[in-house]
Design a protein that fits this description.
Blueprint lengths: L1 H31 E2 L13 E2 L16 H13 L9 H11 L8 H13 L5 H5 L5 H12 L3 E9 L6 E9 L12 E2 L6 E2 L5 E2 L3 E4 L5 E3 L4 E9 L3 E8 L4 E6 L16 E2 L4 E4 L18 E8 L12 E3 L2 H7 L6 E3 L6 E3 L3 E2 L1 H7 L4
Antiparallel strand pairs: 1-2, 3-4, 3-19, 5-8, 6-7, 8-15, 9-14, 10-11, 10-13, 11-12, 12-15, 15-16, 17-18
Helix pairs in contact: 2-3, 2-4, 3-4, 3-6
Length: 362
């Protein structure tokens, strides 16, 4: 009896200790887990997670629709020379915060209404978002996805009569579709579909089906961070944005001739440049093997808020299908270089961010 009684006391002590530790864990977890309140339109499963030290974002569900991207962008461009400048990322973040990250049918009208009130001076973004607890999160998250895509730049334009090219200054979309102008492709939203080579997993990118040798275009200016063979992606390219927040992954490039001539790790690349060629390499530990059944480009975007996320079990990859549809409006024209297998862009672009990077300002 004494032995049994003693065990009960010990078990009670252990039980109480476990309760205390669990309460402490839940207190810390609750403090560092941020989720939109019910009146913000929060839907279960769309919680916003931040690191346990609350210093950086650890998860993003990028659910912004193509329609919302287009409308917010058009409003931004239209306001460029107006008294009140609109920022497309702010408008999207406002809509995201208001609707818990959901972009349903009424979102576009919500964006338009907010833009009208801002343009007419009836309100400010600070006023619109003062009661939206998670607006700062949505702005940081959406800025991480879209931050380098709109701005001032110069690009060559050919005179309609003489054909002579000259640089002209613009404000607008300076990111490009990853498939060169004039080359066919097909796609659908395949983010999250299953994959089983090597191990069972979900697809964390977007596939664009096309023809072998199709020129692959640099989406956003940046620095070539990775180049070479990966058993899953075959010949692939990894380009990091200058602000370090976006890692663009281009995979399954052409057998024997995957890259643009002279491309090397560390190179500074301008959006619209030809960086490689479509193929179907990959699914092999042996280099230069075509084990992918369909010819296509796999491209993905990883968000990096802290370098610990770069190569880890906590990588953040977002669904870029709506963004791919949006980028269709900006396709870089490419031309063949003589009798070679090489292609190059037709119209050169001057991106101020490239100039800064070349001068070591990042």
């Amino acid at each position: 009896m004494r032995k049994f009684s003693s065990n009960i006391k010990i078990n009670e002590a252990v039980f109480l200790f476990c309760l205390v530790m669990m309460a402490a864990f839940l207190a810390v977890y609750s403090k560092n887990r941020v989720s939109a309140p019910a009146d913000d339109g929060y839907m279960p499963g769309e919680a916003v997670l931040v690191a346990t030290d609350s210093t950086f974002i650890t998860w993003v569900d990028f659910n912004v629709s193509y329609e919302a991207l287009k409308v917010a962008y058009d409003l931004d461009i239209a306001s460029y020379d107006q008294t009140v400048r609109l920022n497309w990322i702010e408008l999207l973040a406002y809509a995201g915060a208001k609707n818990g990250g959901s972009f349903g049918k009424g979102t576009v009208n919500s964006i338009k209404k907010a833009a009208a009130e801002l343009s007419e001076g009836k309100t400010t973004m600070a006023t619109l978002t003062k009661d939206l607890k998670h607006y700062p999160y949505y702005y940081e998250a959406y800025e991480a996805v879209l931050g380098g895509m709109v701005g001032e730049y110069q690009i060559e334009v050919a005179d309609e009569t003489t054909g002579i090219k000259a640089f002209k200054k613009y404000y607008g979309l300076k990111a490009f579709l990853p498939i060169a102008h004039g080359f066919p492709y097909s796609d659908y939203d395949d983010f999250g579909s299953s994959r089983n080579y090597g191990y069972s997993r979900v697809h964390l990118g977007h596939d664009m089906m096309g023809q072998i040798g199709t020129p692959i275009i640099c989406i956003e200016s940046g620095i070539v961070e990775n180049l070479g063979w990966n058993q899953y992606g075959g010949w692939r390219i990894g380009i990091r944005s200058f602000d370090g927040k976006r890692y663009y992954y281009y995979a399954h490039l052409r057998q024997n001739y995957p890259y643009a001539e002279g491309l090397s790790e560390g190179d500074i690349i301008t959006a619209g440049d030809v960086i490689g060629y479509m193929g179907h390499t990959g699914y092999s530990k042996t280099e230069n093997v075509n084990n992918i059944k369909s010819v296509h480009l796999h491209w993905g975007m990883q968000l990096i808020f802290d370098e610990s996320q770069r190569d880890s079990d906590n990588e953040i990859w977002v669904d870029v299908y709506p963004l791919t549809r949006f980028l269709y409006k900006n396709r870089s024209k490419a031309e063949k270089v003589g009798d070679t297998r090489e292609w190059q862009r037709v119209y050169e672009m001057i991106d101020p961010e490239v100039l800064k990077a070349s001068q070591g300002q990042f």
